[in-house]
Design a protein that fits this description.
With 250 residues, the protein is of the alpha/beta class. It contains eleven helices and eight strands. The protein has helices at residues 11-14, 18-27, 40-52, 64-67, 72-84, 106-123, 135-143, 159-168, 182-190, 218-229, 233-248, and strands at 2-7, 30-36, 56-60, 91-96, 127-130, 150-153, 171-174, 196-198. An eight-stranded parallel β-sheet has the order 1-2-3-4-5-6-7-8. Helix 9 links the parallel strand 7 and strand 8. Helix 5 (72-84) packs parallel to helix 6.
Amino acid sequence: MLVDVHAHIYKEYFNEDINEIIEKAKKNNVVSIINAGINHETNKEVIELSKKFSILKSSLGLYPLEGIKLEEDQINETINFIEKNRNKIIAIGEVGLDYHYVKNKNKEQKDIFQKIINIAEKLDLPIVVHSRGAESDCVEMLESSKIKKIIMHSFSGNMKLIKRIGDNGWTFSIPTNVVYSTQFQNIVDKTSISKILTETDSPYLSPKKNERNEPSNIIYSIKKISDIKKLEKEEIEKLIFLNFQKIFIK
């Protein structure tokens, strides 16, 4: 049983063939896809889609580059929506910091992220974290929190931070471009299999360059992780599914 713990299955990307994409995932033995919102509109959409497709589970968030576009009342509206829908979701995300594209609003991003950390603590939900170009700040803020289940999504930090995250007992969500990315291959190599999950970040980070990604491509991650860990694919599938259950299923 395969899991995709971070995808963006929105009509914007999959409107014409969403049914086909879901069926293809099922045929490839994907049993659960965590569909991550990035703003108020997509948060509402992922909840609606989860009503139509039982394989889709909802994760509500506020992507850092979306958050800095908003006024404070709009940010609070998004956070209130997350809290209101606590019983319909299994995680908070995609959230975090991004200094790669925005280099002059670090404080604003951190203030928003802190609000989201606070609600994750209050709701006692796993948090799925984006940290591009801001890995150290993200780690420091999360270390100051009381959140127990932290998933570092597509982590691009250095080996020192990778070790620190491992020592903290957090989990890495490995995207499907692990098939060619030495960064993610190194994380798999240095991290216990008990702290690894699989994701696609669909429609991004495809194992096939310049193609739209989709949940069925998790099969390529499993093969690469099994090669790195020198374990049978069936064993990798079983262990990652157990990790998924421990973090997201109560």
